[in-house]
User: What shape does this take?
Amino acid sequence: MATRDAVAAELARIVGADQVWSGEQARQRYPGDKSWLTIVHAHYGEPLNQPEIAVAPATVAQVSDIMRLASRAGLAVTPLGGGSGVQGAANANLGGLLLDLTRLDRVREIDETSLTCTVECGMNVKRFDAELARQGLTFTHDPASAEWASIGGAIAARGSGVLSTRYGNIQDHVLSLEVVLPDGQVAQLPAVPKHGVGPELSQLFVGSEGVLGIVTAARVKIQRQPKARRFCAFHFPSLAAGIAAGREIVTSGLRPAVIRLYDAHAAVLSLEKIVRAGLQGETMVLMVQGQHEALVELEAQTCGQICRAHGGQALDDQIGAVWWDDRYGMSHPPHTPALPQIWMTMDAVSDFSSLQGLYDDVTRAIAQSIDPKWGLTVKTHLSHWYEWGAMIYSRINVPQGPDNLQEAVALHDRIVDAAVQATLEAGGVMNDHHGVGMRLGPHMGAQFGTAGMSLLQGVKSGLDPQGILCPGKLGLASPLAG
Assistant: This one.
């Protein structure tokens, strides 16, 4: 391996000396992502993010040159977008090179005829939508992390957003990708995903968390700004009744932009803090939007009829409007958690046949995972619905964890282990849209099985035989990970 100083000098030649940071300067500039694991390790002086060098390219050609250099030097590379991830994926935990992609932030082309846009990976999601809005357009991938997240980060983590029930998750927005491979080659994949020229390779990189290649640009679907929007809200006698209503809505061809079904704990302890409507139990918020007023009105009315047929009691429509206007307020102080708390989200997904059991088993497993003395709380809602199933999104908090790093992490891991085991035993998949990262990496073998991991490892080894991209991530072996 080349010396750090030699690599830094070569990087300075590629991007300019002011875009290269070494040693402690790099680690202070890039403390890591927003996961509890990252935050707690940094708090105790044992940071997970340990880059030897950080570099911020501004063009795909520079990314290509950097990867060629890293390949020659046998240097580990970890790409970084907005740093808003909550699983620890963006940590350069084995050292090497941290690749800051946020300077690749141009909108290259807007095609208003096809309603597509080619955008670079470092573009901030919220700023991207604001740029589109000036032309009467919108990007319907709308995650809670939009003000921090990058387009590339959303793609890397296979992310989702609040409007996913109508418009899909990020993989449904991606038409094509530009990818820099580990050896520095630049692959421009076919412009559309519907073709008969072999496998759809763009999707191979969606959710790969930088392990297989570095996404530098994406051609994505966009929409015209909606002309009509309707909200409604319902109280249900049980979560099962709400699930049945949601299932009938999506399996009958209706596509509200939002279906959020809160269990009693989440409704009273989370949603109520936003809407202040005196909620008493299981609550569903729906939002329908589109280009045609009559269709939006009819779809909202039909969703309401289905909810009533399953025992739903109509609440004030204004609940939905208030929630919409302040839906991300809980992501900001004073509502954001802080140490010595332990906090995390576990979002599991299944088909409708397994969904109620998934909710019952996972929430029970989480609640029973640690000694009651820790006061663990779990609040669960269902916010992403598909034609075949839905997900459960559990917010977990321990008000005050141990004042020792190893003990705190062990407590955290017991909760995660219990949730994952219960998910798999219930027939679910252990994550819907937050990615794998360091939190779920140890469970990839249980999720995929021996043959599945062999398949994934074969793809990794074929594309990255040196194992330089994100070594050890996604539970994969790498020569650099030991």
Notes: The chain has 17 helices and 18 strands. The chain has a mean pLDDT of 96. The first helix runs from residue 4 to 15.
